[in-house]
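# step 3/5: fold
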Amino acid sequence: MNKINPIIVNYRTPDLTLKCVASIIEMGVAQPQDIIVVENASPDDSFARLKAALPKDVRLVLAERNGGFSSGVNVGAALATGDFLLVLNPDTYFVDQSISRALELMETDKTIGLVGLDLTYPNGERQFSARRFYSVLDIVGRRTPLGRYWPIKPMIDRHMMFTAWDKGLPFDADWVMGTGFVIRRSLFEKIGRMNEAYFLYMEDVDLCARVWRAGLRVVCAPNVRLIHDHQRSSSAGPLSNAGKMHLRSLKIFRQKYRIPVFSPPGVKGLFR
């Protein structure tokens, strides 16, 4: 497992970050010296608490500024030396060693550039972390009550790729949630790292788009479990702070990629 560098970006969540790091070590996901924690200029005592409580071999770096999630990941990736980067939200943790299946998958199939993990809420419910690229109706359906009703609901179900998980086998996804994924470090550097134009939201969609553009695949791995102890804020209404930030990120994404009105573009139709 010394081929992998977990990267965790902390912002005012030291307790969650410590739990995440402890699970990585306990489950043998990575050695302490390969774990990189980026303290993203939190306006509290996060850095002091992490410095005092993290195992001494874990690498803790203090970012000069809070440039958002993408910026924090890039700070951590600059210190990585392994073949693979394991990008994790601080509100995640491991309960088994199934991450080894994701690494085996990538070592066996060189056409795979990025693997999304099977995000699971603490109650065992799957989060469905694989998605298709957006159409305008997908965005409307996810942001408003219209997504609960026909004919928008079947479109949202396809966007969320619910049935792709049924066979329990790895499958191609347009993009996967950035909450937990593995990417080849060489590919990450080649495609320009995370796009720091996004402060929060859509940076994972943009990254997966560039993986596909580079000629490699984005794959989701059922049963490679990562527990996600989080209440989704980006599904809030468009007038909430999270909703406004998500829409701003969508605007940035739309400047680079196509978002058709009715039908999802797929990989081939995404690029302008």
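# step 4/5: annotate
The domain at 4-256 is CATH 3.90.550.10 (Spore Coat Polysaccharide Biosynthesis Protein SpsA; Chain A).
# step 5/5: archive (pending)
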